[in-house]
């Protein structure tokens, strides 16, 4: 049980043994992670078109496949990462993940040269080498990114956890905003390699921040290895965890689909609307930046709503809002239109609210000694959703129309939001039962 103090950081009560510096370092590292997670989706379309030279009619499938290398790394490793998080601590994994990102962000820009040096002289070989290096970056991200949500839980009390989760999501969004608003605008000046080197420098800075500014503060005995069967038993007994896992499966793909396919769409039709590749990238950055900026403004509202009206209500509303955003994008003929800014803002608000609400539901319902493992399972399910929806979206993009993946995903989100509304009473009952157990055991 964490002991209380009268100290606060951004309205979040600081437990005994922690300081404001620890919270500042946690959220600074979250911002860096937001940059590193967003940068590949922004760089890849121009990189694949201008440097690798992929066929235009396969742009959707190749870009989504490359983006899914990170998800494949997550799928293969997230369970082990969750177990390692509970056994060895969050901090060491964050440091290791940033270090891996530092190495392979620098290497990524030279994937074509590396392929030629290895005797891979065909376009297929160059793409394969690019995929392998992107997979390595994905390993770095999966080692570090899940630890931030877990550390927010470690650092906060339940009644302030919604604000803590929202602030973490805000910093991730601010990282994305930095990429969209700054990095894309300087792309023509520094080039693609310059942006990748900047990613490497940010990774190195993240390593230093984690090494100097973070400490582990884990609940209870967490050295025992927790297997998949135990995680399954825990989730199967909690309807709240089942619902949060379903929410992760549906909503996590919304982190990847808009940033990947909107940018590919704009780069693909750039010349049709009178833009160069770099101009289309910059315009796409402005549109996506608008969504991230709106997210920054709305996160404070999301955090308050999570604690005041409940996680489930926020989840329902934001799922439906994100579905509407997708459907409006699907009706747009010109991706460079100013109306796209409004649609992306709606989608950004909805996706971020749904993800934060789902994460908070899961962290509330998870037994503290299994927190890292349960959240690792949540990330695994979310990753499966990303792989399924992102890859199928790439196929629809290439073979049906540019708008079709947005139409399909919008319908999925809206329908799932309606399902959550239908079962909200079961979720509430499951939450009340968990709180009773915690109260009897002395957990906070």
How would you characterize the overall build of this protein?
This protein is an all-alpha fold and 444 residues long. The protein has one domain (19-213, 229-439): MFS general substrate transporter like domains (Growth Hormone, Chain: A, Up-down Bundle), CATH 1.20.1250.20. The protein has 16 helices and two strands. The chain has helices at residues 20-52, 59-88, 90-108, 111-117, 123-155, 161-183, 187-213, 228-236, 239-251, 257-268, 277-308, 311-330, 339-365, 371-399, 404-422, 424-441; strands at residues 8-9, 12-13. It has a two-stranded antiparallel ribbon. The longest helix is centred in the N-terminal third of the chain and has 33 residues, at 20-52. The radius of gyration is 21 Å and the shape is globular. 58% of the residues are buried.
Number of helices: 16
Strand order of the largest sheet: 1-2
CATH class: Mainly Alpha
Going by helix content, strand content and strand pairing, the class is mainly alpha
Poorly predicted residue ranges: 221-225, 439-444
Write down the overall mean pLDDT.
Answer: 86
CATH H-level homologous superfamily name: MFS general substrate transporter like domains
How much helix, percentage-wise, in residues?
over 70%
Terminal CA distance: 6 Å
Q: Measured on Cα atoms, how large is the radius of gyration?
A: 21 Å
Number of domains: 1
Instruction: Label the CATH architecture.
Output: Up-down Bundle
Helix and strand run:
EEHHHHHHHHHHHHHHHH
User: What is the number of E strands?
Assistant: 2
Q: What is the beta-strand fraction? A: under 5%
Largest sheet geometry: 2 strands, antiparallel
Q: How is the CATH topology named?
A: Growth Hormone, Chain: A
Global morphology: globular
